[in-house]
Amino acid sequence: MSTEKNKKTLQGKVVSDAMDKTVVVEVGRFVQHPKYKKFYTISKKYHAHDEKNQYKIGDVVEIVETRPISKKKSFTVVY
Question: CATH number of the domain that 69 lies in?
């Protein structure tokens, strides 16, 4: 039996690749306002580990939650 908890998986676009082995991924969510019922996009940026420096700005990638790699990095790029 596996005791591993479910890991969060997100999909987003690479907005920065200036750091070594790190990319910044912007993830957007489509939400509805509770009172006015209008739909709008909320975006959040995540630092993700990219071991081979293979992802560039504009790439659509999937990131998965992992152990903390540094102060800001808790995600790893899957593809």
Answer: 2.40.50.140
Q: Can you tell me which residue has the tokens 């790699």? A: 69
Q: In total, how many domains does the chain have?
A: 1
pTM of the model: 0.86
Q: Do residues 10 and 67 touch, judged by C-beta distance below 8 A?
A: no
Quote the mean pLDDT of the chain. Answer: 94
Do residues 78 and 13 touch, judged by C-beta distance below 8 A? no
23: in domain: yes
Interatomic CA distance for residues 42 and 11, integer angstroms? 14
- Residue 49 dihedral angles phi and psi, to the nearest 5°: -80, 130
Task: Compute CA distances 23 → 6, 9, 56, whole Å.
Answer: 23, 16, 8
Question: Residue 20: what pLDDT?
Answer: 96
